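dumping this here before i forget
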Amino acid sequence: MGQQNENEMVKQELDLLDDSANVFKMVGPVLMKNDLEDAKQTVDKRLEFITGELKKTEKSIEDKEKRSQEAAENVQKMQGAMQNAAAEAARQIAAQQQK
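structure:
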């Protein structure tokens, strides 16, 4: 999210510039002159990539939450079945002791 916000701010700043403005990018320890259109395209591609990665991550989280919910439901069913089996066993023991 931080990278997305940062890139959106850069995009807004680039949109404010006129076509004759000088744009520089950091390449290692050096500032290199960059074409404004190239800079805009680079930022747009970064934003597309970040948005895609966020969507993939959100989908993965949703899938894992769904599997977790299903596992919790299965555990509840098993616990209910075990309680019923224990209650039935207790009834049978009680019935045998009354004979």
